[in-house]
Automatic annotation (TrEMBL):
Signal peptide: 1-19
Annotated ranges, domain T20D4.11-like: 107-254
Name recorded for this polypeptide: DUF19 domain-containing protein
Keyword terms, alphabetized: Coiled coil, Signal
Coiled coil (residue ranges): 244-271
Gene source species: Caenorhabditis tropicalis
Family annotation (Pfam families): DUF19
């Protein structure tokens, strides 16, 4: 259930995260972060421009890389970037390299803004790959999930290496990755099995008339709060001990993200109501 919501809300939360068009230009420099973001995206996806395919743009030595990549960057910039940014790059490329290599500790400085753009295509790719994970019948070590977990780790590392990204953005990414990792556990496999097979749960007196199969966010939250022990009992009985091996930890991760989704859904609904 939760991955289908994550696919939408991930895009919603990160669609405007740290817009590249900051106001950190100086009298001598043009802020070309919007152009850099586009260049990194094209290079990451490996399409449209052949010259990007041989470049190691995501290395830590950005200055050396962009010295080598000058002709390619300008080729892309001429077609894909705002004209003011292309003019700056084509006439003051050495100044761009100087800005890129600066050792300014101000998190909003050009060198940090530029470095942060490497993370943007990773974030976008996560939102795309989340949508490819089947919401039902996910098996342990599904290649799609393993690829997504690896991408999550790379993205977390990218964000952690640059103070331009705020702590709440790093926390959001970490929590999204937790729920993606949770997909690759017997805990999630058991949830899906119970929903799919819909066994008769009338023998579990702990439910007291609670509809275990109702899939609204509020009812699923209740399964891991009001009916937490009962949910654990049902999962263990149907799926075995492996499904509840780390039940408290996994349930907390699941619950935390459900509450996040519930809060976001309420906020969107309130916004829609106020617009009417």
């Amino acid at each position: 259930m939760i991955l289908s919501f994550l696919s939408f809300f991930f895009c919603f939360l990160f669609s405007s995260v740290h817009s590249a068009s900051t106001n950190s230009s100086t009298n001598t420099s043009e802020n070309v972060s919007k152009c850099l973001k586009e260049f990194y995206s094209i290079a990451y996806n490996g399409n449209d421009y052949n010259c990007t395919k041989s470049l190691n743009l995501f290395s830590n030595n950005s200055t050396s890389t962009f010295k080598t990549a000058k002709s390619c960057f300008l080729e892309v910039a001429e077609e894909e970037c705002p004209q003011s940014q292309f003019r700056f790059l084509s006439t003051k490329y050495d100044q761009f390299l100087e800005d890129l290599n600066a050792n300014d500790t101000n998190c909003s400085s050009l060198n940090n803004v530029y470095s942060a753009q490497k993370c943007q295509p990773l974030i976008t790719d996560i939102s795309v790959k989340i949508a490819l994970v089947p919401d039902k019948n996910v098996k342990i070590n599904d290649p799609t999930v393993l690829e997504l977990i690896d991408l999550c780790n790379k993205t977390k590392k990218c964000l952690a290496e640059n103070c331009y990204w705020k702590d709440d953005e790093k926390t959001t990414m970490r929590e999204y990755c937790e729920i993606i990792e949770l997909t690759n556990t017997e805990f999630t496999v058991c949830q899906q099995r119970i929903i799919k097979e819909a066994p008769d749960l009338s023998e579990f007196k702990c439910l007291y008339g609670f509809d275990f199969y109702l899939q609204t966010i509020s009812f699923v939250v209740d399964k891991y709060t009001l009916k937490r022990d009962c949910t654990k009992e049902i999962m263990e009985d149907i799926c075995g001990k492996e499904a509840v091996k780390d039940f408290e930890k996994n349930a907390d991760i699941y619950l935390k993200n459900l509450r996040r989704l519930e809060k976001l859904a309420d906020g969107i609904e309130e916004t829609a109501d106020s617009d009417e």
